[in-house]
Amino acid sequence: MKKILLPLLISCSIMPSMVFADIKIAAGSGVNILAVNGKAIDQGTLFSDSPDITAENGRSQIVAEYTAEITQSADDYILEKSDTFVITFTANDTTVSVHAPEISNRYGLKAFNESGNWRLQNTDGKSIPFDFGKLEKEGFQLARDYEKELKAFNSSSAEAAMVSLNTETHNFNKGTPAQPVSIGVHADQKMVGQMLQFWYEQASTETRNKFKSWIKSSQ
Question: pLDDT digit string (tens) for 95-137?
């Protein structure tokens, strides 16, 4: 009887890790992950941390953009964002690291927007093949409805489209599940954080230093 029970217990202890195995998605320097499998990620700001991101094994789709430090002079730079990319790939039981080349001028940023020269790597450092497309941005937008945009994208014939995401529910970001922002103080403070980050990114080095000094003197 013991000979029968032991293999059974071992197999039962292994099964949960097989059934619930997933991948972790890690953003490289300057990379922002905005959505996973059709669901927007609650973005951290300069004043809050971004959540850990996971997705189920198999085919996954992320929305990503890159923030480049464009050199203005020897001691000054401005931040500019790339186009918004949709990236689709397949991975199992690994960490998928999403990287972009280091860009320091507008020519490099333009070339990146045209080529989609992303680099996806697994835990062993091996490259992961992917398809990509873009979510087109119209005019100035402080906030975007990525879920709505992805529904339209995934109904298209783009190579990176995943039609199944418009009909299936995918589990990701298990540590902090995505939920609509409640109306009230929390929503107001989130918007404040986003606006502060936006204007900080637009400011010159001199203005940033003044802002930092003001914060220190106000504590």
Answer: 999 999 999 999 999 999 999 999 999 999 999 999 999 998 7
Q: What confidence tens digit (pLDDT) does each residue in 47-88 have? A: 555 668 999 999 999 999 999 999 887 778 888 999 999 999
pTM for the model: 0.68
Long-range contacts of 143-150 (CB under 8 A, 24+ apart): 143/194, 144/84, 145/40, 146/34, 146/35, 146/40, 146/63, 147/35, 147/38, 147/39, 147/40, 150/35, 150/38, 150/61, 150/63, 150/86
Q: Which amino acid is at 194?
A: Q
Q: What are 120's strand-pairing partners?
A: 98
Asked if residues 33 and 41 have their Cβ atoms less than 8 Å apart, the reply is yes
CB 120, CB 128: distance < 8 Å:
yes
DSSP letter for 127, please: B
Helices (H), 77-153: 106-115, 146-153
Smallest CA-to-CA distance from 190 within 34, 45, 41 is with 45
Plot region of 31 (φ>0 → left; ψ -120 to 50 → alpha; else → beta): beta
Q: Give the pLDDT band (50/70/90) at residue 188.
A: low
